[in-house]
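Figure 2 data, in text form.
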Amino acid sequence: MRPVRALADVLAEEVLVLDGGLSNQLEAQGCDLSDELWSARLLADGPEQIEAAHTAYVRAGARVLITSSYQATFEGFAHRGIGRAEAARLLGRSVELARAAGDLAGEDVWVAGSVGPYGAMLADGSEYRGRYGLSVRELERFHRPRIEALAAAGPDVLALETVPDADEAEALLKAVAGCGAPVWLTYTVAGGRTRAGQDLAGAFALAAGVEEVIAVGVNCCEPGDVGPAVEIAAGVTGKPVVVYPNSGEVWDARARGWRGEGTFDPGRTGEWRAAGARLIGGCCRVGPDRIAALAAALGDEREE
């Protein structure tokens, strides 16, 4: 059931817990994600696994669930022989599965329809580089059909996420104009700049006057990059900030594995909250156990 209160209204009053990485939870459930469609493949082949992953995060305390549509595009589905009508149905299914899991919570859970960057469709890591060689207009044309299909499925918000490049952010913001759904915009960042190397203040300024944007922030980045980015995002836009960093481990594409130590610390939520964060969760390699710890930390802060 869709919450009665709009997400934007709730963010004006309280901090909400986001979920964590969907793919790592699906792998923990035994799913094989070695496919160009990644977790989106399961929309067709294993929807019950996606609902189970969402449910694990609801049980951990997540109040906002991000759908499995990050890598789901009309073009990507077409490569698998799936036509546009069926692809649109599968995009809608991503919202339905998250909503069904949220209904088990016994309290309001909001659903964010994931709109990943163009690079996610390429499945070659270019979402961490940006600069695809496409114009803003070409990127807008790519994103608009999926945005329209997801918006029609009735999520509470669209998550324009893991955006590496201010040019792509501009295209996404053009594509959501008139879509009928509020959105948040999150960049993937490194060292205080977008992955494409752009100044964060200028990148966030693109969203400052856009009515559809109810929150801005960062995701799929090192936890250490979050604090400065929150301050910039809040200062430039005056909007609530959303943050969901990775575990801190680094993906080794050659070895096809993760290396390094995790640095995701739920205890840092107080710092992020003080800087303006109102939606806080995790991305890659942050599972239900860390989200449960984060929810507990936020609960302790509210009681102080």
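Caption note: Residues 84-102 form the longest helix (19 residues).
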